[in-house]
Amino acid sequence: MKFGKRLKQHVEETLPGWRDMYLNYKDLKKLVKMISSSIEYGKSEAEFVYLLNNEIEKFNVFFMEQEEDYIIRHKELQQRIKKVNESEASSQGEYEEEMARIRKDIVDFHGEMVLLVNYSNINYTGMAKILKKYDKRTGGLLRLPFIQKVLEQPFFTTELVSKLVKECETTMDELFPTMMVAVEMKEAATMMAGEGIFRNTVAALMTMKEIRKGSSTKSHFSLPTLNLPDNELIRSFQLNSPIPII
User: Fold this and answer.
1) What is the pLDDT of residue 34?
2) Are 202 and 241 contacting, i.e. CB atoms less than 8 angstroms apart?
3) What predicted TM-score, i.e. pTM, was given to this entire model?
4) Dihedral angle of Cα 88, 93, 98, 104, to the nearest 10 degrees
């Protein structure tokens, strides 16, 4: 599948509030085509660079806002887990109800963070592809210096979010027996077959794996190959996916 179609499909499948935050690949592609046939090359290139910089600013603002929110939510979840384990519930039923709510919130939280990592991946890939297209169509040399700039941007720096994702998965493995996780994820797949974080996360994981798979055309601009961790949560996403994974 061509990147433009894959991006369009992913945007349609992601959270509604995120849809305007992705790379405007379609318009940039049209501009590249127009520039390649324009006699005012310098002016057109300046417009192209201006639009790319605006896109980067959009990515950074959105990414940093989400990252800050996730740091706060991660601390809150850890406090809730500590509180429920240390407090004496009036009944076993109340304890189980609170733990069930925590499990659901952890699954949702994990899913949103996976979506943000994918957000970074897919926008970087889109930038690299549109710059490659630009250089090829115009004979320009924008790709290398611009990608070097992109690599220094906050939206590309996913180490903190990736660390939170791993900590979230560790919490799942430590707190909840394997069979319990599998059952809960199966129930989530059934309940959210048409919409919700679960469905979006499955799509994001598969998109990341697709755009980061090994390729004969791989270059130093490509993201490293993604190997999904052998984690019960991730296996549940794959096995219970309510959408077709191609």
Assistant:
1) 87
2) yes
3) 0.76
4) 150
